[in-house]
């Protein structure tokens, strides 16, 4: 899970002008954000010890999955050619919550 978060932040740190060869992904930007954080939510809840996989662990996971997208989107303020997006952050949170919910029902 920690490695996955490092990958997310690493990708966020790529300057915008270096991403021109990936412009075809812009069409699916929101889907990519959703899936990226769906995986993170699943991984985070899965990483909890079984005794924390309760209502308390569920809410801790949700809090974590609000903080990480906020940090991720704000990190973009520091990267040339990148800009934070409230909509991307919302989609990130939605994907993360979906991942936690999916994993908690297994």
What labels would you give this structure?
mainly alpha; 106 residues
Topology:
Blueprint: H1 2-12, H2 29-47, H3 55-75, H4 86-104
What's the gist of this structure?
By secondary structure, the chain is mainly alpha-helical. The protein has one domain (2-104).
Task: Explain what this protein looks like in three dimensions.
With 106 residues, this protein is mainly α. It has one domain (2-104). Helix content is 66%, strand content 0%. The protein is built from four helices and no strands. The chain has helices spanning 2-12, 29-47, 55-75, 86-104. Helix 1 packs parallel to helix 3 (55-75), helix 2 (29-47) crosses helix 3 (55-75) and helix 2 crosses helix 4 (86-104). The longest helix has 21 residues, at 55-75. The radius of gyration is 14 Å and the shape is elongated.
- Mean of all residue-level pLDDT scores: 86
Domain count: 1
Rg, nearest Å:
14 Å
Largest sheet: none
Tell me roughly what share of residues is in helical segments: 55-70%
Number of strands: 0
Portion of residues in beta strands equals: under 5%
- Anisotropy-based shape: elongated
Which series of helices and strands comes N to C?
Answer: HHHH
| Low-confidence runs | none
Distance between the termini: 18 Å
């Amino acid at each position: 899970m920690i490695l996955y978060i490092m990958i997310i932040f690493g990708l966020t740190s790529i300057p915008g002008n270096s991403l021109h060869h990936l412009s075809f992904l812009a069409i699916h930007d929101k889907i990519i954000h959703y899936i990226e954080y769906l995986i993170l939510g699943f991984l985070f809840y899965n990483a909890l010890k079984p005794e924390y996989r309760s209502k308390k662990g569920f809410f801790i996971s949700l809090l974590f999955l609000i903080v990480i997208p906020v940090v991720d989107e704000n990190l973009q303020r520091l990267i040339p050619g990148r800009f934070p997006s409230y909509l991307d952050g919302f989609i990130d949170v939605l994907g993360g919550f979906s991942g936690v919910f999916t994993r908690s029902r297994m």
